[in-house]
Amino acid sequence: MIMIEIMQTLDERYSRQILFPGIGAEGQRKLAESRVAIVGCGATGSVLSSLLVRAGVGYVRIIDRDYIEPSNLQRQVLFDENDAAEALPKAIAASRKLQLINSTVTVEPHVEDLTPSNCEDLLEDTSLILDGTDNFETRYLLNDYAMSERRPWIYTAAVGSYGVTLNILPGKTACLACVFPQAPEGATETCDTGGILNSAVNMIASIAVTEAMKFLVGAEVQMRRTMLSFDAWHNDHSEIRADHARADCSVCQERKFVYLAGRAHPHISLCGRNSVQIHERHRPVNFAELEARLAPHGEVRSTEYVLRFVRSPFELTLFPDGRAIIKGTTDTGVARSFYARFIGS
Ligand SMILES: [Zn+2]
Protein backbone atom coordinates (compact mmCIF):
# COMPACT_ATOMS: atom_id res chain seq x y z
CA MET A 1 0.00 0.00 0.00
CA ILE A 2 2.76 2.41 0.99
CA MET A 3 4.68 1.40 -2.16
CA ILE A 4 1.72 2.35 -4.33
CA GLU A 5 1.55 5.78 -2.68
CA ILE A 6 5.24 6.35 -3.30
CA MET A 7 4.81 5.34 -6.95
CA GLN A 8 1.91 7.77 -7.33
CA THR A 9 3.93 10.59 -5.79
CA LEU A 10 6.82 9.90 -8.13
CA ASP A 11 4.52 9.73 -11.14
CA GLU A 12 3.18 13.16 -10.16
CA ARG A 13 6.65 14.61 -9.65
CA TYR A 14 7.87 13.46 -13.05
CA SER A 15 4.55 13.58 -14.88
CA ARG A 16 5.55 16.29 -17.38
CA GLN A 17 8.76 14.50 -18.18
CA ILE A 18 7.04 11.12 -18.60
CA LEU A 19 4.63 12.78 -21.02
CA PHE A 20 7.58 13.74 -23.19
CA PRO A 21 7.83 10.87 -25.73
CA GLY A 22 11.63 10.73 -25.61
CA ILE A 23 11.50 9.80 -21.91
CA GLY A 24 8.20 8.05 -21.13
CA ALA A 25 7.61 5.76 -18.14
CA GLU A 26 10.36 3.40 -19.22
CA GLY A 27 12.87 6.24 -19.57
CA GLN A 28 11.89 7.56 -16.16
CA ARG A 29 12.55 4.16 -14.64
CA LYS A 30 15.97 4.07 -16.31
CA LEU A 31 16.82 7.53 -14.97
CA ALA A 32 15.93 6.36 -11.46
CA GLU A 33 18.33 3.43 -11.83
CA SER A 34 21.17 5.60 -13.23
CA ARG A 35 24.38 6.50 -11.47
CA VAL A 36 26.20 9.62 -12.62
CA ALA A 37 29.43 11.31 -11.50
CA ILE A 38 29.87 15.06 -11.90
CA VAL A 39 33.45 16.27 -11.69
CA GLY A 40 33.52 19.92 -10.65
CA CYS A 41 30.54 21.78 -9.23
CA GLY A 42 30.92 25.42 -10.20
CA ALA A 43 28.68 27.05 -12.78
CA THR A 44 28.56 24.10 -15.17
CA GLY A 45 28.26 21.52 -12.40
CA SER A 46 25.44 23.51 -10.75
CA VAL A 47 23.35 23.16 -13.88
CA LEU A 48 24.34 19.56 -14.58
CA SER A 49 23.54 18.40 -11.06
CA SER A 50 20.43 20.50 -10.53
CA LEU A 51 18.75 19.40 -13.77
CA LEU A 52 19.69 15.73 -13.40
CA VAL A 53 18.51 15.59 -9.78
CA ARG A 54 15.25 17.31 -10.72
CA ALA A 55 14.86 14.87 -13.61
CA GLY A 56 15.10 11.95 -11.18
CA VAL A 57 18.55 10.47 -11.83
CA GLY A 58 18.75 8.01 -8.93
CA TYR A 59 22.32 8.58 -7.82
CA VAL A 60 24.54 11.61 -8.36
CA ARG A 61 28.08 11.84 -7.04
CA ILE A 62 29.53 15.34 -6.83
CA ILE A 63 33.28 15.77 -6.74
CA ASP A 64 34.65 19.26 -6.15
CA ARG A 65 37.81 20.60 -4.52
CA ASP A 66 36.80 24.20 -4.01
CA TYR A 67 34.82 26.39 -1.62
CA ILE A 68 32.21 29.05 -2.38
CA GLU A 69 33.14 32.72 -2.70
CA PRO A 70 30.92 35.76 -3.32
CA SER A 71 32.20 36.06 -6.91
CA ASN A 72 30.71 32.63 -7.68
CA LEU A 73 27.11 33.66 -7.05
CA GLN A 74 26.67 35.48 -10.38
CA ARG A 75 26.60 32.16 -12.28
CA GLN A 76 26.76 29.17 -9.92
CA VAL A 77 23.04 28.80 -9.57
CA LEU A 78 22.96 26.25 -6.76
CA PHE A 79 24.59 28.55 -4.21
CA ASP A 80 23.47 31.50 -2.10
CA GLU A 81 24.95 34.25 0.08
CA ASN A 82 24.96 32.09 3.21
CA ASP A 83 27.03 29.45 1.45
CA ALA A 84 29.57 32.10 0.45
CA ALA A 85 29.64 33.64 3.94
CA GLU A 86 30.41 30.23 5.41
CA ALA A 87 32.91 29.43 2.62
CA LEU A 88 31.25 26.03 2.38
CA PRO A 89 32.86 23.44 0.14
CA LYS A 90 30.91 23.43 -3.11
CA ALA A 91 30.28 19.67 -2.99
CA ILE A 92 28.70 19.99 0.47
CA ALA A 93 26.56 23.03 -0.32
CA ALA A 94 25.48 21.48 -3.62
CA SER A 95 24.42 18.20 -2.08
CA ARG A 96 22.45 19.95 0.68
CA LYS A 97 20.61 22.04 -1.86
CA LEU A 98 20.05 19.12 -4.22
CA GLN A 99 18.57 16.97 -1.48
CA LEU A 100 16.14 19.78 -0.65
CA ILE A 101 15.17 19.85 -4.31
CA ASN A 102 14.71 16.08 -4.53
CA SER A 103 14.86 13.89 -1.44
CA THR A 104 13.97 10.74 -3.37
CA VAL A 105 17.38 10.46 -5.05
CA THR A 106 20.84 9.97 -3.56
CA VAL A 107 23.45 12.72 -3.77
CA GLU A 108 26.92 11.92 -2.52
CA PRO A 109 29.42 14.78 -2.05
CA HIS A 110 33.19 14.36 -2.20
CA VAL A 111 35.34 17.36 -1.24
CA GLU A 112 38.32 16.21 -3.25
CA ASP A 113 40.55 17.07 -6.13
CA LEU A 114 40.33 14.41 -8.85
CA THR A 115 43.82 12.88 -9.10
CA PRO A 116 45.35 9.84 -10.79
CA SER A 117 45.31 8.01 -7.46
CA ASN A 118 41.65 8.58 -6.53
CA CYS A 119 39.89 8.71 -9.89
CA GLU A 120 39.13 5.02 -10.03
CA ASP A 121 37.52 5.06 -6.57
CA LEU A 122 35.55 8.19 -7.38
CA LEU A 123 34.36 7.24 -10.85
CA GLU A 124 34.26 3.48 -11.25
CA ASP A 125 30.69 2.59 -10.27
CA THR A 126 28.89 5.20 -12.36
CA SER A 127 27.59 4.79 -15.89
CA LEU A 128 28.26 8.31 -17.12
CA ILE A 129 30.78 10.99 -16.15
CA LEU A 130 30.06 14.67 -16.67
CA ASP A 131 32.67 17.39 -16.88
CA GLY A 132 32.00 20.41 -14.70
CA THR A 133 35.68 21.28 -14.28
CA ASP A 134 37.40 24.48 -15.31
CA ASN A 135 40.80 23.20 -16.40
CA PHE A 136 42.36 21.04 -19.07
CA GLU A 137 44.61 19.13 -16.73
CA THR A 138 41.65 17.49 -14.98
CA ARG A 139 39.88 16.97 -18.30
CA TYR A 140 42.85 15.11 -19.77
CA LEU A 141 42.97 12.96 -16.64
CA LEU A 142 39.25 12.29 -16.98
CA ASN A 143 39.72 11.44 -20.67
CA ASP A 144 42.59 9.04 -19.86
CA TYR A 145 40.52 7.29 -17.22
CA ALA A 146 37.40 7.11 -19.39
CA MET A 147 39.30 5.81 -22.44
CA SER A 148 41.27 3.27 -20.40
CA GLU A 149 38.03 1.88 -18.92
CA ARG A 150 35.99 2.51 -22.10
CA ARG A 151 33.54 4.70 -20.23
CA PRO A 152 31.41 7.48 -21.75
CA TRP A 153 31.77 11.09 -20.64
CA ILE A 154 30.64 14.53 -21.75
CA TYR A 155 33.06 17.44 -22.08
CA THR A 156 31.63 20.90 -21.36
CA ALA A 157 33.45 24.21 -21.11
CA ALA A 158 32.57 27.90 -21.06
CA VAL A 159 34.41 31.19 -20.87
CA GLY A 160 33.25 34.70 -21.71
CA SER A 161 30.13 34.27 -23.86
CA TYR A 162 31.47 31.10 -25.45
CA GLY A 163 30.47 27.53 -24.67
CA VAL A 164 31.52 24.18 -26.12
CA THR A 165 30.48 20.58 -25.53
CA LEU A 166 31.36 17.13 -26.89
CA ASN A 167 29.89 13.68 -26.22
CA ILE A 168 32.66 11.11 -25.87
CA LEU A 169 31.52 7.53 -26.46
CA PRO A 170 34.50 5.15 -26.52
CA GLY A 171 34.80 3.30 -29.83
CA LYS A 172 32.03 5.38 -31.37
CA THR A 173 33.21 9.00 -31.33
CA ALA A 174 36.38 11.03 -31.05
CA CYS A 175 37.86 11.43 -27.57
CA LEU A 176 39.04 14.73 -26.07
CA ALA A 177 42.63 14.09 -27.19
CA CYS A 178 41.48 13.29 -30.76
CA VAL A 179 40.07 16.81 -30.95
CA PHE A 180 42.65 18.58 -28.78
CA PRO A 181 45.98 16.68 -28.79
CA GLN A 182 47.25 19.63 -26.78
CA ALA A 183 45.25 22.02 -24.64
CA PRO A 184 43.71 24.49 -27.11
CA GLU A 185 44.96 28.03 -27.56
CA GLY A 186 43.15 30.26 -25.17
CA ALA A 187 42.54 27.41 -22.72
CA THR A 188 44.60 29.36 -20.24
CA GLU A 189 41.97 32.04 -20.38
CA THR A 190 39.62 31.25 -17.51
CA CYS A 191 36.61 32.83 -15.88
CA ASP A 192 39.10 34.65 -13.69
CA THR A 193 40.86 36.32 -16.60
CA GLY A 194 38.27 36.40 -19.39
CA GLY A 195 35.13 36.84 -17.34
CA ILE A 196 32.02 34.80 -17.98
CA LEU A 197 28.42 35.38 -18.93
CA ASN A 198 26.05 33.36 -16.74
CA SER A 199 23.67 32.66 -19.60
CA ALA A 200 26.42 31.17 -21.80
CA VAL A 201 27.50 28.63 -19.21
CA ASN A 202 23.94 27.76 -18.24
CA MET A 203 23.05 27.21 -21.90
CA ILE A 204 25.96 24.93 -22.76
CA ALA A 205 25.47 22.94 -19.54
CA SER A 206 21.78 22.52 -20.37
CA ILE A 207 22.72 21.07 -23.75
CA ALA A 208 25.11 18.64 -22.05
CA VAL A 209 22.35 17.58 -19.63
CA THR A 210 20.04 16.81 -22.55
CA GLU A 211 22.72 14.61 -24.10
CA ALA A 212 23.22 12.90 -20.73
CA MET A 213 19.50 12.17 -20.46
CA LYS A 214 19.51 10.62 -23.94
CA PHE A 215 22.33 8.35 -22.87
CA LEU A 216 20.74 7.39 -19.56
CA VAL A 217 17.36 6.47 -21.07
CA GLY A 218 19.03 4.33 -23.75
CA ALA A 219 18.61 6.77 -26.65
CA GLU A 220 22.32 6.83 -27.42
CA VAL A 221 21.56 6.84 -31.13
CA GLN A 222 20.04 10.31 -30.70
CA MET A 223 23.22 11.73 -29.21
CA ARG A 224 25.10 14.43 -31.12
CA ARG A 225 28.26 13.22 -32.90
CA THR A 226 29.77 16.70 -33.26
CA MET A 227 31.61 19.16 -31.10
CA LEU A 228 29.14 21.97 -30.68
CA SER A 229 30.20 25.49 -29.84
CA PHE A 230 28.49 28.81 -29.75
CA ASP A 231 29.07 32.37 -28.76
CA ALA A 232 25.91 33.62 -27.13
CA TRP A 233 26.90 37.28 -27.36
CA HIS A 234 28.03 37.33 -31.00
CA ASN A 235 25.51 34.76 -32.22
CA ASP A 236 28.17 32.51 -33.70
CA HIS A 237 27.53 28.80 -33.79
CA SER A 238 29.59 25.94 -35.14
CA GLU A 239 29.72 22.16 -35.18
CA ILE A 240 32.65 20.05 -36.17
CA ARG A 241 32.43 16.34 -36.88
CA ALA A 242 33.58 14.11 -34.05
CA ASP A 243 32.04 10.81 -35.12
CA HIS A 244 35.26 8.82 -35.28
CA ALA A 245 38.60 8.66 -33.53
CA ARG A 246 41.71 10.27 -35.00
CA ALA A 247 43.84 7.35 -36.28
CA ASP A 248 46.98 8.51 -34.49
CA CYS A 249 45.36 9.63 -31.22
CA SER A 250 47.83 8.79 -28.45
CA VAL A 251 45.06 8.22 -25.91
CA CYS A 252 42.16 6.30 -27.45
CA GLN A 253 44.19 4.61 -30.25
CA GLU A 254 47.71 4.16 -28.90
CA ARG A 255 46.33 3.87 -25.36
CA LYS A 256 49.03 5.95 -23.69
CA PHE A 257 47.54 7.32 -20.50
CA VAL A 258 50.10 9.88 -19.44
CA TYR A 259 47.79 11.81 -17.11
CA LEU A 260 46.42 8.69 -15.47
CA ALA A 261 49.96 7.45 -14.91
CA GLY A 262 50.38 10.58 -12.82
CA ARG A 263 53.47 11.88 -14.55
CA ALA A 264 51.75 15.06 -15.54
CA HIS A 265 50.05 15.71 -12.24
CA PRO A 266 51.72 18.32 -10.05
CA HIS A 267 51.14 18.30 -6.31
CA ILE A 268 51.11 22.05 -6.33
CA SER A 269 49.04 23.81 -8.90
CA LEU A 270 47.71 27.18 -9.80
CA CYS A 271 43.98 27.20 -9.44
CA GLY A 272 42.92 30.54 -10.80
CA ARG A 273 41.97 33.68 -8.87
CA ASN A 274 45.51 34.37 -7.72
CA SER A 275 45.65 31.09 -5.79
CA VAL A 276 47.79 28.02 -5.40
CA GLN A 277 46.54 24.61 -4.34
CA ILE A 278 48.74 22.37 -2.24
CA HIS A 279 47.92 18.71 -1.98
CA GLU A 280 51.24 17.09 -1.42
CA ARG A 281 50.40 15.42 1.85
CA HIS A 282 47.35 13.45 2.62
CA ARG A 283 47.01 13.46 6.33
CA PRO A 284 44.06 14.35 8.52
CA VAL A 285 44.21 17.70 10.28
CA ASN A 286 42.76 18.46 13.71
CA PHE A 287 40.99 21.80 13.19
CA ALA A 288 40.51 22.59 16.92
CA GLU A 289 44.17 22.07 17.71
CA LEU A 290 45.33 23.98 14.69
CA GLU A 291 42.93 26.87 15.34
CA ALA A 292 44.42 27.33 18.81
CA ARG A 293 47.94 27.21 17.43
CA LEU A 294 47.25 29.70 14.62
CA ALA A 295 45.23 32.21 16.66
CA PRO A 296 48.25 34.33 17.72
CA HIS A 297 49.39 34.63 14.10
CA GLY A 298 46.32 35.90 12.29
CA GLU A 299 42.59 35.66 11.95
CA VAL A 300 41.41 32.07 12.12
CA ARG A 301 38.09 30.29 12.19
CA SER A 302 36.88 26.86 11.28
CA THR A 303 33.73 24.92 10.54
CA GLU A 304 33.20 21.21 10.22
CA TYR A 305 34.44 21.43 6.63
CA VAL A 306 37.12 24.08 6.30
CA LEU A 307 39.58 26.08 8.36
CA ARG A 308 40.18 29.66 7.25
CA PHE A 309 43.43 31.42 8.22
CA VAL A 310 44.00 35.01 7.14
CA ARG A 311 47.40 36.57 7.51
CA SER A 312 47.87 39.44 5.13
CA PRO A 313 48.42 39.23 2.20
CA PHE A 314 47.54 35.53 2.24
CA GLU A 315 44.35 33.66 2.93
CA LEU A 316 44.63 29.94 3.51
CA THR A 317 41.68 27.57 3.26
CA LEU A 318 42.43 24.14 4.66
CA PHE A 319 40.37 20.98 4.16
CA PRO A 320 40.24 18.11 6.68
CA ASP A 321 42.54 15.90 4.57
CA GLY A 322 45.37 18.46 4.66
CA ARG A 323 44.78 19.90 1.21
CA ALA A 324 44.91 23.71 1.08
CA ILE A 325 44.15 26.58 -1.25
CA ILE A 326 46.30 29.63 -0.63
CA LYS A 327 45.00 32.87 -2.02
CA GLY A 328 47.13 35.96 -2.54
CA THR A 329 49.92 34.53 -4.66
CA THR A 330 50.60 32.66 -7.89
CA ASP A 331 54.11 31.76 -6.74
CA THR A 332 54.10 28.08 -5.78
CA GLY A 333 57.30 28.53 -3.73
CA VAL A 334 55.74 31.28 -1.66
CA ALA A 335 52.60 29.22 -1.12
CA ARG A 336 54.58 26.15 -0.15
CA SER A 337 56.63 28.01 2.46
CA PHE A 338 53.51 29.66 3.91
CA TYR A 339 51.93 26.22 4.23
CA ALA A 340 55.08 24.72 5.75
CA ARG A 341 55.40 27.55 8.23
CA PHE A 342 51.85 27.49 9.57
CA ILE A 343 50.41 24.07 8.84
CA GLY A 344 53.49 21.90 8.79
CA SER A 345 55.84 20.26 6.38
ZN1 LIG B 1 41.25 9.87 -29.14
Structure in words:
- With 345 residues, the protein is α/β, with parallel strands linked by helices.
- It contains 13 helices and 14 strands.
- The chain has helices at 2-13, 15-19, 24-32, 43-55, 81-85, 90-101, 119-123, 136-148, 176-179, 191-194, 198-216, 287-294, 332-342, and strands at 35-39, 59-64, 106-111, 128-131, 153-159, 162-168, 226-231, 236-241, 268-270, 275-278, 299-302, 307-311, 314-318, 324-327.
- It is globular and about 65 Å long.
- Bound molecules: zinc ion (ZN).
Order of helices and strands: HHHEHEHHEHEHEEHHHEEEEHEEEEH
Instruction: Give the biggest sheet.
Output: 8 strands, mixed
Ligands in the structure? zinc ion
Count of beta strands: 14
Task: Provide a compact summary of the structure.
With 345 residues, this protein is an alpha/beta fold.
Topology:
Elements: H1 2-13, H2 15-19, H3 24-32, E1 35-39, H4 43-55, E2 59-64, H5 81-85, H6 90-101, E3 106-111, H7 119-123, E4 128-131, H8 136-148, E5 153-159, E6 162-168, H9 176-179, H10 191-194, H11 198-216, E7 226-231, E8 236-241, E9 268-270, E10 275-278, H12 287-294, E11 299-302, E12 307-311, E13 314-318, E14 324-327, H13 332-342
Parallel strand pairs: 1-2, 1-4, 2-3, 4-5
Antiparallel strand pairs: 5-6, 6-7, 7-8, 9-10, 10-14, 11-12, 12-13, 13-14
The protein binds zinc ion.
